[in-house]
Design goal:
Blueprint (H helix, E strand, L loop, with lengths): L1 E6 L3 H10 L3 E6 L3 H8 L7 H8 L7 E2 L9 E4 L5 E2 L4 E2 L2 H13 L4 E4 L7 H7 L4 E3 L9 H6 L4 E4 L6 H14 L7 E4 L1 H32 L3 H9 L20 H12 L6 H24 L4 E4 L14 H11 L4 E4 L7 E2 L2 E2 L4 H7 L2 E4 L13 E2 L8
Parallel strand pairs: 1-2, 1-4, 2-3, 4-7, 7-8, 9-10, 11-12, 11-15, 15-16
Antiparallel strand pairs: 5-6, 13-14
Helix pairs in contact: 8-10, 8-11, 10-11, 11-12
Bound molecules: nicotinamide-adenine-dinucleotide.
Length: 389
Amino acid sequence: MSKVLIVGIGYVGLAQALLFREKADVYCVDASKERADSLSNGNYRLNDSLFLSRFGTIPKIETLTSLPKINPDFVLLCLPTDYDEQTRSFDTKALDEEIKKCSKMYPNSSIVIKSTVPIGYTLSKKKEGMSLLFSPEFLRENTLYEDVMKPSRLIVGYDDEKDKEKAKAYMDLILNCVEDKNVRTILSSSMEAEAIKLFSNEYLAMRVAYFNELDNFALKKGLNSKTLIEGVSLDPRIGDFYNNPSFGYGGYCLPKDTKALLSCYGDIPEDLISATILANEHRKQTIAEDIAKRYKGKTVGFYRLSGKKDSPNFRSSPMVDLLFLLKEKNVDVIIYEPIAREDSFKGYPLVDDFQRFVDSVDVIVASRIDERLNPYLNKVYTRDVSHRD
Ligand SMILES: NC(=O)c1ccc[n+]([C@@H]2O[C@H](COP(=O)([O-])OP(=O)(O)OC[C@H]3O[C@@H](n4cnc5c(N)ncnc54)[C@H](O)[C@@H]3O)[C@@H](O)[C@H]2O)c1
């Protein structure tokens, strides 16, 4: 059996651990003791019932807090790369450090970057003398099982002819583990693989921004957004998917990846990427103005803080940005968010009882409608026209 060491067991690292656990010896490392302990006890940050229904049981993932003395065949680096507004690029500090450490400690292993990185990052490391593969990850946090077991495509980037065999061996290991054996595969240069990841997320963000901008128009002109979208999407070149208006795109990846792609352009002409980022900011402002106009002086309730259905967290959520925009407009908000454990969020009261929440607000602002809201639809403010993400 191959030995796979995974460094950073967040969403991506966890998905990799679950993918490889039956066909390889998997070792996991996370710098956070709290995270390592909770994984070793079988507690994930995921929506456990959803996860359970897919996996059947909750597999425990023994997680260490420092690199083990083993000889792994593959080391997968699944570390955070937040966007740094000051340097206008991804913060790759954790990745830089772990690449250095792992290259020294595991000189015979294939080291694979799974984190999303700036285009040219892997090649720059090669110039520093470190041989790496880059394999972009496309999973969504609320459909982790589906995305990891039946991926849309598998891509591995390498730069040196001598790394081609390593890239193929890594691809073969993944193919051995996924459910869909006919998945399309691409071996490319590392820069191409890095670019594929960022351009994919830019397209998704642009598509969200497009349907939201259509919805801005419908909102202002009093048109039925659902009818417009249905009519537009019947063109098979456009397609009836990923076209449901929201309060803006959010989550960990789209906001930071669009900004990082923009900064990769440097002097190269571009318009669409900046326009996408700007359109997303304008969308949130349009929604905040609309809510303030309709409900100022009333009690506004936020149903969930995530922008997506079943999302296990609310990182960079448009709902959170909306809260701040409404604060500037002196609109009072209370929040129902069962995954938040505190009594308040950024100064706003959190109500933990759903019925009490519904009874105490004049309007329920919801990015996405779920079954619990069905009896109260006459009280709901949303732009979710098709009740799906
Ligand atoms: N979340 C997604 O849906 C998704 C999808 C595709 C790609 N990505 C990319 O994958 C990368 C990881 O994303 P994520 O969502 O899994 O992040 P995350 O924040 O959920 O997890 C990162 C983990 O790394 C740990 N960590 C930080 N520094 C460490 C170090 N030096 N050594 C060991 N562990 C360390 C953290 O404690 C955390 O548990 C990012 O670059 C992200 O852009 C994420």
